[in-house]
Amino acid sequence: MVSETPLLQLRGISKSYGSVQALSDVDFEIRDGEVMALVGDNGAGKTTLIKCIAGIHGYDQGEILFEGNPVSISGPKEAGRLGIEVVYQDLALCDNLDVVQNMYLGREERDWLWRLKEPPMEQHTAETLKSLAVTTIRSIRQPVASLSGGQRQSVAVAKAVQWNSKLVILDEPTAALGVAQTRQVLDLVKRLADQGLAVVLISHNLHDIFEVATRITVLRLGRDVGVYERATTTQQEVVHAITAGMPTKVAGIAETVPELAT
Amino acid sequence: MSSEADVAAPGIGLPPEQEAEVQAGVWRRALDNLRTGNLGILPIVLGLVLIVLFFTIKTPVFFTANNFNNIIIQMAGTCMLAFGVVFVLLLGEIDLSIGYLSGLGAVAVAEFQLPDSSHQYPGLVAIVLAVGLCAMLGGVQGTVVAKVGVPSFVVTLAGLLIFQGVILQVLEYYYFSHSAGWIIAGGVTALYAAMALAHVIGHRRAGVAIRDPYILLAKVVAVAVASFGTVGICNHANVPTGLPLAGVLVVIFLVGLTFLAKRTPFGRHVYAVGGNAEAARRAGINVARIRILVFVISGAMAGVGGIILAANVNSVDLNVGGGTLLLNAISAAVIGGVSLFGGRGEVRGAVIGSVVIATVANGLNTAGYKCHPPLRRHAGHRRAPPASALRALSR
Ligand SMILES: Nc1ncnc2c1ncn2[C@@H]1O[C@H](COP(=O)(O)OP(=O)(O)OP(=O)(O)O)[C@@H](O)[C@H]1O
Ligand SMILES: [Mg+2]
């Protein structure tokens, strides 16, 4: 593989929720300008893995390297500072706040009097949504509770991509979207990668993944069972890995065994 | 980008040519709100009008300038507590300790200026110290809630039991002179108009359409009518004449806390934590810090309210802070439209709710029904000089 250091590298990550071992000894990496798909059955540990990256919860073992340096991502704020943005599967929006308020949550623009600067936030929100072809929201000042599922998802995506980040993680961003909006999100993913950002895309739709991804990491039962180059693999091979893949390394040994794909 | 993206984005962005449509939209939105049952404060204001009508018919002394002044004073203390309750409820928490905490605030004021002790501070300093003490106690409770994770119901119930056992104090009451009242009314109106103007200019400069320009104008007129009307009636009263300081304090806190809740990042984060604490956390908001600060506000407002109440009733019995005060304060916020489940409500709800409660209590009182003693004792109120501030009764 290319020798350039990955933007983000996870080594031997393990995480358990009480007695449930959600991740065991998982390796994962992504480079700048790359779309890395993360696939696996329900409960495979995809969301758990990206929550480790985003600092939502800690992990029991392993280490994370960002731009080659070991980092401890202690919380969402720290992840944001590193340039990591996440669209969560459960969206993480505040229903009682309106679209603009959600878009800027935790990063409100304020003036010297500690007052919120609403006009620029409103304008920027409108522009971001328009660029994502989100044209069905009647008012960006309506509470998110009054939006449809797909509209909420669009807002969540817009919220994550509006910042100048280095890594954007999308956990099933198109699951509730209509045809046009899914198209926009997929185009957006490609565009972000073209701009040199790293994008992690979680999806159950292999068709979409084979359209935009450069590489595909497969998780099965909390273990990584292979990384596939989009150009050299097939959907059948990935489906097989999702349903019956075997770990690429023996537990306890940190070195990666040559990948199944090649 | 693709041409699809340019196929009109209704409602988004509001370019200038859509301004006219926005103005028409005011009525459509009002109608929408009516239809969907999203009535805001309308029902409660209607209810208040009915209550006033009822007592006006029931007894001749109710609808008088004197009684108007009484109601302002009677609602002020409860309202201060309710202001704090609004923030706590917005978080989806509860604070049961405010009743006795307010009593503690009143006692502390007297304690800090006991004539024969080593620490005889001037009135205002004593008040600031007392409110600071209450804020700190609120902060301690908030810290236990936020950091240890004990439910606020339990923590503040414990607080309630600890703060119980309060002593009697007196704080005399202050009314503004007639001319001072008029100046205040003029100042309030001018300030509000200036703020509205700044709002318009700010939006124009940023190129964002002003929502509802007519409503903005109507609001300025309403504020003028309300402030001059209030001062007019208060000056017309004769038993104690003039605008009560307590009323002015309510307005000051109303404006300040509304600003805090609606215009600052802190306020926005309070709503966010109340709406979806997990989403707030993932957005990088320090949820524990917000929780603690809200309990600090609750404690401070309990202190302010307690001092006003002590002044109001002219004597505080062992029951102060107990009995109905806690319930009244929480009811005021809830009547004013603040949700018990967090994330929904406005600071002004505290004012509306306490006016309703004070009006009902006052009405029952003047109509001769039996009511709780503090409000009755208040009836013969005298004008008092401002500086004498506090006098300890027993200690
Ligand atoms: N908060 C939690 N507490 C306990 N167990 C959890 C928690 N979150 C996830 N799990 C468990 O961890 C495992 C991995 O869950 P995860 O959400 O990461 O799966 P996923 O790959 O994202 O699945 P899906 O495709 O359905 O979103 C599951 O067995 C799940 O039950
Ligand atoms: Mg998931």
Which tags fit this structure?
heterodimer; A: 262 residues; alpha/beta; Rossmann fold; 4-stranded antiparallel sheet; 8 helices; 31% helix; 24% strand; globular; disordered C terminus; B: 395 residues; mainly alpha; two-stranded antiparallel sheet; 15 helices; 67% helix; binds adenosine-5'-triphosphate; binds magnesium ion
Question: What is the total domain count of chain B?
Answer: 2
Give the CA-based shape of chain B: globular
Fraction of residues in β-strands of chain A: 15-25%
Count of beta strands of chain B: 2
Task: Quickly count the helices of chain A.
Answer: 8
Main sheet: strand order of chain A:
6-7-8-3-9-10
Low-confidence stretches of chain A: 251-262
Assembly form of the protein: heterodimer
The string of secondary-structure elements of chain B, in order, is HHHHHHEHHHHHHHHHE
- So, CATH architecture of the domain at 6-94 and 165-258 in chain A? 3-Layer(aba) Sandwich
Overview of the structural elements:
The complex is a heterodimer of chains A (262) and B (395). Chain A is α/β, with parallel strands linked by helices and 262 residues long. Chain A has a domain at 6-94 and 165-258: 3-Layer(aba) Sandwich (Rossmann fold). Chain A is built from eight helices and ten strands. In chain A, strands 6-7-8-3-9-10 form a six-stranded mixed β-sheet, with helices on both faces. In chain A, strands 2-1-4-5 form a four-stranded antiparallel β-sheet, with helices on one face. Chain A is globular, with a radius of gyration of 19 Å. The N and C termini of chain A lie close together (11 Å). By secondary structure, chain B is mainly α. Chain B has helices spanning 19-36, 42-58, 65-90, 98-112, 123-148, 152-163, 178-206, 213-236, 245-263, 265-275, 277-282, 287-313, 324-335, 348-366, 373-377; strands at 169-171, 390-392. Chain B has a two-stranded antiparallel sheet. In chain B, α4 (98-112) crosses α12 (287-313) and α5 packs antiparallel against α6. The longest helix of chain B is centred in the middle third of the chain and has 29 residues, at 178-206. The model of chain B is unreliable at 1-23, 165-171, 314-318 and 371-395 (pLDDT under 50). Classes of the chains: A alpha/beta (262), B mainly alpha (395). Chain A binds chain B through residues 54, 56, 75-77, 80, 86, 88, 91-97, 101, 105-108, 110, 114-116, 119-120, 122-123, 126-127, 129-131, 133-135, 137-141, 180, 184, and chain B through 1-2, 4-5, 7-14, 202-203, 206-208, 211, 263-265, 268-269, 271-272, 274-276, 278-285, 343-344. The complex binds adenosine-5'-triphosphate and magnesium ion.
